[in-house]
Amino acid sequence: MNRLAAWFSGLRQRDPASTVVGSIIVVILFVLALRAGINKALVIGLTEHAPLVLASIGFALLYRLTGLINVAYAETITLGAYFGVWMNTTFGLNFYAVLLPAGILAGLISVATYFGIFRPAKRFNVGALEMIIMSFGLSIFLRYGLQFVFGYPVRFFDVPPPQTIRVLGVGVSTFRLLAIGSVLVLSLALYFFIQRSRYGLQIRALASDEDLAQASGIRPLAVTVMIWFIAGVAGGLAGAFYGVNSNVAPLLGWRQFLFFLLVVLVGGSRGLGGVIVTGLAAGVALAAMSLQFSQTLYSQLFLIVAFIVLLKVRSRRLSETGKV
Amino acid sequence: MTLDWLDAFLITGVFSVVMIAGLGLLLHLQLGLARIANFGVVGFWGIGMYAYGVLYVKVDWPFGDPWAFIVAALFGVVVAGLAGLLVGWLIADLDEDGVLVGTLGFATVVFILATTEDDLTGGALGMGGLRFPYNIGSVKANELLWLVILTAIVALILLYVWKVHRSPYGRLLIAVGANEPLAQSLGKPAFRTKLWLFVVGSAGMGLLGVMYGVLERFLETSNLGVDLTLAAMVALVLGGTARIWGAVVGAVLTIGFFDIVVQSYLPLPKEWYQQAIPVLREMVFGAALIVVLLFRPLGILGDMRRDKLMRSMHGD
């Protein structure tokens, strides 16, 4: 408790404004969650929005390690869902059997976009602003292009009706439990992979100083491809879970884009752990607010506004630094 | 006056070309000069359209139509301008990532509010009751006159952009876009410049939204998707982000090709127009953004032409 108080006061000294705003948001959410029933908000939030955490992890990897906001990551998610539904309905494969290949295919697409577009763009010295617009163009291209491959109608996973298990007195489908389980496993694995393994060290070295990393014998290409692949797999899995929970449509990933973007920008400054915590908190907050408000969209509205205000308050400190 | 020779599709086609050119011109000030990528064009456009539509339809106006329209349209423009002030303040000191979040978030908020506040906006079902503020005969004649008015407005926007290019304010925008800390350290008010840029740009986008709402005579939330932002951005990037005429050239080449040539003149099977053509259109737009930025980042028209003062200072 003492350590917590010390950490909090340290935070307050370093960054008073955003601590205040952050605390206000947390208190509001806590009150909302209490009114909605804390067990309900927790269980629904964690299970229903588990894919959001998965997507955020992948997006954060790309963002932190290549410095790129890749709008087309939304379509990696959508494609994961489409690959899953295609194998599921065409070959009659079980949903659980489809997960891994769908993730791998999405990872390969992610690597292909790197080689096809982002690597040449870096060679041509495309600026940061143009890079975002290009990834926006790629996102649109993939979102509409996949309709020519997979067809226009909304598609559904062919799965037996999920069993409902009661957790803390709230009914949860098995798919959602699997989603939160795989989020936990994947995030732990990724965390240890990046913090402890040799490849993780190489990834971090490459992210902090490319020339130095290259001079110390790290092959940047191999490591970069690995990052894009892992991020793609995480996105594809997230897409498959989103798809099995509702349906598979071209806008599936794009609808989530703003949320994982905000989660990564707000939580990303505290590393991968911060992303996971922020993603889970956003999920619980969305669930708590959905239980309270008359329309689900209001909870999204509140979350978007709260996160943007937090970003704005936090950026105040940084406005003085810049490149002259 | 008989207008039988005029295809109804042609009016809407030309209307969207002119409107996208207008949006692209306003985006040019933000993206081409100040280097702020506004991903929320549709939000400002939509908030103008909806603010106008709700006030026009829901209020029991004591006076007749041109005046009711003018008051409601003015309201739409002011609301869009105020939204621009808010968003401009939000993103003025953020980097590219923050600008993406702020503008895209704003567009999403507009979409959410248009959907949830269905007592006012009709929500997902849409809302009718909008009409032209005049009646000069047939529907076609009314639409044609509306197109002429829109063209006049966009011509005024073009004139404004042309003036900005040749004014100290325009040079300030370029300076802020090229190196903001440097401009700040020379005592230039970068923050205020960006605020003003967003107020004017958003008010203009709101006005174009009002014009579109009247032509359609129906407000739909499906208009508030990302397609419009994409169209304005593709037009500008293809034509040339740094040039005054870039957005106009780009809009004619992109929207003109798909909404006029493909829509009315190509002998394509009827059933393609249902789904394949709209999907193909967006796909081509997305690909165009990638290809142009990769191989010709400044678009068809190329780099900025400096005005006389700058040329005399730097040589050309």
Question: How does this structure look, described?
Answer:
The complex is a heterodimer of chains A (324) and B (316). By secondary structure, chain A is mainly alpha-helical. Chain A has a domain at 49-254. Helix content of chain A is 79%, strand content 2%. Chain A is built from 14 helices and two strands, in the order αααααααββααααααα. Chain A has helices at residues 2-14, 16-36, 38-48, 50-66, 73-90, 95-123, 128-150, 174-196, 198-208, 210-215, 220-245, 252-267, 271-292, 296-315; strands at 164-167, 170-173. Chain A has a two-stranded antiparallel ribbon. In chain A, a hairpin with a 2-residue loop joins strand 1 and strand 2. The longest helix of chain A is centred in the middle third of the chain and has 29 residues, at 95-123. In chain A, 47% of the residues are buried. Chain B is an all-alpha fold and 316 residues long. Chain B has one domain (8-314): ABC transporter involved in vitamin B12 uptake, BtuC (Orthogonal Bundle), CATH 1.10.3470. Chain B contains 13 helices and no strands. Chain B has helices at 8-33, 41-58, 65-91, 96-116, 118-121, 139-165, 168-178, 180-185, 190-216, 227-239, 246-265, 276-295, 308-314. Chain B is globular. The chains are: A mainly alpha (324), B mainly alpha (316). At the A-B interface, helix 6, helix 7, helix 12 and helix 14 of A face helix 4, helix 8, helix 10 and helix 12 of B.
